[in-house]
């Protein structure tokens, strides 16, 4: 199931990584289509379709980002068969056809992490991801779905990045407290106490405080605040994701998914995401939809115009 970095036959390892990249690209392109279709559905008043499409879009986006990073997170590349299995499970989950839609993806994702839950400190943040997979297995509603694997993915990435920016080591206490807070917060949501969504965000901010010194730091702070207010209205959580995605995943990870050089992003992503969030929360659905579509188009243009950096075979 795994090909360890530095301990596997080079050609076989290369092929395994290529399949990881292809699976991540498939999920990314699918998420773009789902996001675009979802905001258009809202502008035409198709609220049920809007909710389902945007939920599937978030799942697709974070599967893409997290699966691409998986070899680095577990110090091994999933085998080609494992990638085919997890991709199939992801597509079934994204279709939301089961009573617990993310159950297939959750089960396979937990198994993929079993070899990387103890030992090196770099493995500690995986506890947060596994917490997200465990909650995803029993997530039934759209709100529960985005508060499971997608939220845990954001928490994992923020813990890794903000710890590094603050020159802090990953610790049992830090990763463990966030994973526990995420599980506890999800249980509260299950019981109808939607303020539970704020719990892991508060703990993450204590374990890995963001440095408000650039667009990333400012965006992450605003995004965390918006997401923590998700108990007031679901769109605070959804739009909080949009803000975090604009400053974290777009510049840090999306160029790697499509293997392009990193373009220069400034404050424009954050500005568009904040505008879309404010417009949606204020009820200007059509204008908010245009803002989201503009952000998707702008990011795609900036990244795809950059030079390709293909992964060369051994």
Present the secondary structure layout.
Layout: E1 2-4, H1 10-43, H2 47-74, E2 76-78, H3 80-95, H4 103-112, H5 126-136, H6 142-146, H7 149-165, H8 172-190, H9 198-207, H10 215-228, H11 234-252, H12 254-257, H13 268-282, H14 285-304
Antiparallel strand pairs: 1-2
Can you walk through the features of this model?
The protein is mostly helical and 314 residues long. It is 71% helix and 2% strand. It has 14 helices and 2 strands, in the order E-H-H-E-H-H-H-H-H-H-H-H-H-H-H-H. Strands 1-2 form a two-stranded antiparallel ribbon. Helix 10 runs antiparallel to helix 11. The radius of gyration is 18 Å and the shape is globular. The mean pLDDT is 92.
- Major sheet strand order: 1-2
Number of strands: 2
N-to-C SSE series? EHHEHHHHHHHHHHHH
End-to-end C-alpha gap: 21 Å
Q: Which key terms come to mind for this protein?
A:
71% helix; 2% strand; 314 residues; globular
Describe, in short, the structure shown:
The chain is mostly helical and 314 residues long. Helices cover 71% and strands 2% of the residues. Helix 1 runs antiparallel to helix 14 (285-304), helix 2 crosses helix 7 (149-165) and helix 7 runs parallel beside helix 9.
């Amino acid at each position: 199931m795994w090909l360890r970095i530095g301990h596997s036959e080079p050609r076989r390892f290369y092929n395994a990584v290529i399949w990881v990249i292809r699976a991540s690209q498939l999920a990314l392109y699918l998420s773009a289509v789902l996001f675009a279709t979802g905001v258009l559905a809202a502008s035409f008043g198709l609220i049920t379709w809007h909710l389902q499409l945007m939920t599937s879009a978030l799942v697709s986006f974070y599967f893409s980002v997290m699966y691409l990073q998986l070899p680095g997170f577990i110090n091994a590349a999933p085998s080609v068969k494992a990638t085919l299995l997890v991709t199939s499970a992801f597509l079934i989950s994204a279709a939301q056809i089961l009573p617990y839609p993310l159950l297939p993806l959750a089960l396979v994702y937990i198994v993929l992490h079993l070899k990387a839950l103890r030992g090196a400190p770099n493995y500690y943040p995986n506890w947060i991801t596994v917490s997200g997979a465990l909650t995803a297995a029993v997530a039934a509603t759209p709100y529960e779905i985005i508060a499971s694997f997608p939220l845990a993915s954001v928490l994992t990435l923020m813990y890794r990045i903000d710890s590094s920016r603050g020159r802090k080591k990953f610790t049992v206490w830090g990763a463990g407290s966030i994973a526990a807070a995420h599980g506890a917060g999800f249980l509260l949501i299950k019981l109808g106490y939607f303020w539970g969504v704020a719990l892991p965000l508060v703990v993450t901010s204590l374990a890995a405080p963001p440095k408000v010194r650039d667009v990333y730091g400012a965006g992450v702070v605003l995004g965390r605040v918006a997401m923590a207010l998700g108990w007031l209205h679901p769109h605070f959580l959804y739009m909080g994701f949009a803000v975090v995605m604009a400053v974290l995943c777009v510049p840090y990870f999306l160029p790697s998914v499509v293997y392009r050089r990193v373009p220069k992003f400034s404050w424009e992503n954050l500005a568009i995401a904040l505008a879309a969030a404010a417009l949606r929360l204020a009820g200007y659905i059509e204008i908010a939809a245009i803002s989201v579509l503009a952000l998707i188009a702008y990011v795609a243009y900036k990244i795809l115009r950059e030079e390709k950096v293909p992964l060369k075979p051994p």
